Amino acid sequence: MMANEGRPNRDDGRFHVSSRLAGESLVDKEVIAGARVDRDVIRMFPELNVLKIGAQSVIDRGRAAVLPIVDEVISLLDRYQILLGAGGGTRSRHVYDIGLRLGLPTGLLAVLGSAPSEQNATMLQALLAQHGGVRIPKDHFEEIPLYLAAGCIPIVTGMPPYHYWERPPLTGHLPEHRTDVGVYLIAEVFGARSMIFVKDEDGLFRADPKKDRSAEFVPEISVSELRQHDLDDLIIERACVDMISRARHCRAVQIINGLVPGRITAALAGEHVGTVIYQDGVDWRKELVKEPSVSA
Amino acid sequence: MPKTGSARLLMKRQQALDVPEVATFRLLPDLNVIKVGATSIIEGDPEPLLALVQEIAALSKEYQLLISTGGGERHRHALDIGVDLNMPIGVLAVIGAAAPAQNALILQALLASEGGIRVPPEHFDEIPVYLASGAIPVTPGMPTYNYWEHPPTEGELPAHDTDVGAYLVAETFGARTVIFAKDVDGVYTDDPKTNPDATLLTSVTVEEIRELPALPFDRPVLDMMERARTVREIRVVNGTKQGQLTAALAGEDVGTIVRAS
């Protein structure tokens, strides 16, 4: 069925734009059913690898952690398209702490929470400038193809732009959607080749490895298993796990220890070198890096 | 590793950081958010629209108002074509911002002589100035989820559309009220335009109307209301009937009131 089937009619003297999505509300039950077509969502950037550089885990450690990772990213540019997203880290937590004590609404905390990841993106861009690092603000995303074609490394703020529209969470007041969700959704909407979270742990453990050295490592785990375990410290945001469960493209992510040299390189080569979190029912081995088969 | 004054927070994760006992601060407790439907009002006959504009202008002398606009037929048309072209959900959300912004410009033009001023999302922190000067901020209803729109759990459309946007602005600002002005008298047991037996419900909870076949506002508003800290109820009135908005702002029983619980 063609989307714009039917002609605008003037029966009531007004010009109408006909579409299948009739009615006052877009989400009337019938409209939802009507829009549930079996469609093959396009992949805008099937060769792009999205790397989230953790802030608390990596950037806040300073040069000892950041410079080797930057060097490793540079060494990969001749083989891969890479987009970097920056986390917020300690300063985000600090401003949230102040805001929470003042009772500021979640939407305002989300606005405040953006600045630290913007600062971190700016610093990553500076470090990568001579290798084509370029800061991409949200309203310039349509220029990313140009930068990739020129061999550049787009660097983005991790925080999603929900701002005043960040919904209150079910418990507490902290924004549920922070930099993990923000960078992940870029990989998902772009139909990227891979989504890799670069942290300071080998991946997910059944207890906090910083407190319990015998904590058991989890090499791979499905979304529903992860939810069942209800681990206190998920290493990625809970809302990000929810997004993975809904994904059309980015159905598996890998969390790796960026402090170990070579891990990023291995992950981009499709190797399993950290914890994989995958959507229920998918063969995660095929999802670590996705073949750039463009469909439309 | 660099140390900062907030080093104590370094390893605290979400739960540890939360301070739930603090009451949520209301930024603009006197503000009334009015969502003006597009298909229902802005795209309808000029007479009821212009009458509503006059009513809003008169009410702005007495109340702080913020107008939020829907997208309407062009919005649906663009989304429809986008779905047909297999656009990712985030692209649908980006193209979905255009029609509500056009409608905001139209309402701003009609309200210009009364102080109507269009406020795009990046200028929201200027809203207090406009309110203090007696102006009427007019904002596009579409929230700024853009490329970051969530993959949907149902259907193929962005869940965060203009009704959700208007509601969340009110919730974040800690507004006095949020009123949805549509072209029906409120929430009915069924769509009153197709089912003559549908009856008006005047006072309902989110849970009571969740399964109704047709609602005059976008369904995800109900999910948002369940999370609300400041705006625990919404009112739906008929914006094409003169006086309903005025009555609603005066706290009178008009249209449908929907409570979070």
Note the run of SSEs of chain A as H and E: HEHEHHHEHEHEEEEHHEHEH
| Overall domain count of chain B | 1
Strand composition percent of chain B: 15-25%
Alpha carbon gyration radius of chain A: 21 Å
Structurally, the number of domains of chain A stands at 1
Please tell me about this protein's structure:
The complex is a heterodimer of chains A (296) and B (261). In chain A, the strands form 2 sheets. Chain A has an 8-stranded mixed beta sheet. A two-stranded antiparallel ribbon of chain A has the order 6-7. In chain A, helix 6 links the parallel strand 3 and strand 4. In chain A, 34% of the residues lie in helices and 15% in strands. With 296 residues, chain A is α/β, with parallel strands linked by helices. Chain A is built from 11 helices and 10 strands. Chain A has a single domain, classed as Carbamate kinase, CATH 3.40.1160.10. The N terminus of chain A is likely disordered. Chain B has 261 residues and is of the alpha/beta class. Chain B has one domain: Carbamate kinase, CATH 3.40.1160. An 8-stranded mixed beta sheet of chain B has the order 3-4-2-1-5-9-10-8, sandwiched between helices. A two-stranded antiparallel ribbon of chain B has the order 6-7. Chain B is globular. The N terminus of chain B is likely disordered. Chains A and B meet through helix 1, helix 3, helix 4, helix 7 and helix 9 of A and helix 1, helix 4, helix 5 and helix 8 of B.
